[in-house]
Amino acid sequence: MPPAKKRARRYDSAKTRAAVLAQFAHVRDGVAALTPEQLDGPTRLGEWTVRELAAHVTMAVGAVARYLGEPEPAKRDLTVLDWALATATASARIDEDTRAIDTGDLPGLYGRTAALYEERIAGASDERLVPTRFGAMTLADFLVTRTVELVVHTDDLNAATGAAVPYDRQALAACVRLLADALAAKAPGGAVEVRIPPYAVVQCVEGPRHTRGTPPNVVETDPLTWIRLATGRAEWAAELDAAQVGASGERADLSGVLPVLS
């Protein structure tokens, strides 16, 4: 896997650790409030039911504790940006692993996952390497990827059930920033400025680089719309028509480089 060329931004690890736990707690409360009928309902994720989606969230967070319980790899293989650009290669394995989870006791599953996460994360070094699906990465980087999993699937859960599971601000910010940086790594350049206030601004797409004044090519949208576009949950043209995305300039069309994570 070739490394992403763009340098990854730095994240406050203490805030990321807390954000993962906070967003997981929000999802846990939301899932606990669902009826059996809602849990058996469909989602926008292929054949997954809400129950399977809920189980997948525990797998995403439980991976932190699981990897910390394994021997530390000898060397680092990837960064957060490499992870974001590699996720599409594991969709079949992720589906298989999710369907294998016993969902008979979701409250118990969430409780055990949270307890083991807190136990193993305590005292673990940010630089400790963990063996993810795609290669070894630091614990600090892996935790940033967990904010993406949690925020994206919180949105999936809300879309499927009509629930209003809240978003931890730090988790939402980390998710938006990583997906924006992944876009800049996938389509490097300085011709288009992408703004997702209040969390991120990146430049991308080959072409003349803008250095001062108002950029000639600007894309702006809100955090959740950006997350849906970046993960293939929303279509560029539809969001543009619905005025959920503002795009000005002849190069401000990102349809050819979206999604960045799927």
Cα gyration radius (Å): 18 Å
Biggest sheet, in brief? 4 strands, mixed
CATH topology (level 3) name of the largest domain: Four Helix Bundle (Hemerythrin (Met), subunit A)
Mean pLDDT: 92
* CATH homologous superfamily descriptor of the largest domain: dinb family like domain
Q: How many DSSP E strands?
A: 6
Helix-strand makeup class: alpha+beta
- What's the helix count? 10
Inertia-based shape: globular
Helix content: 40-55%
Report strand %.
5-15%
First and last CA, distance: 17 Å
Strand arrangement, major sheet: 4-3-5-6
Order of helices and strands: HHHHHHEEHHEEEHHE
Query: Do you know the CATH architecture of the largest domain?
Result: Up-down Bundle
| Unreliable stretches | 1-5
Number of domains: 2
What is the level 1 CATH name of the largest domain? Mainly Alpha
Offer a concise description of the structure:
This protein is 50% helix and 10% strand.
